[in-house]
Amino acid sequence: MNGDIEHGICQICHNEADLTRKYYRYDIKCECHSPYHFELVRHCKKCIPKEPEITKIIVKTNILKKFIMDKKTGEKLIKAGREDLIKLLEIRNSGYAGILSTGEIVDRRTFPEAIPMQKNKSLGIPEPKNLICSLIN
Ligand SMILES: [Zn+2]
Ligand SMILES: [Zn+2]
Fold it and tell me: Which ligand lies nearest the alpha carbon of 26?
């Protein structure tokens, strides 16, 4: 038995058939089973899967608020002509921010020698993530 094959109703033609799974992955964290949101379309051999037009993301309210805040900050930075700082914001939010001996803020996944940036709730800096975990994943 092939683990990928299941029997059921095709989501495209609605006929009963052996189904194949097609995953559409989105680069956004969600409270579904995967750390990143995805849509799953089960379809038969005859049908070409279609990306769903609507997707539901389950997000914790505090994450949504932070997302909106970051978006606003991002827009402000672009207006001020400081797109360069957006990358910095992303690094800071990732939990992989580190400080080099030069004082430069970097991504520890690229600069493992950098000192992890400490958690700071008011600045929106998350708990530093363990670098070893990121290498395993
Ligand atoms: Zn079908
Ligand atoms: Zn999801």
Answer: 2
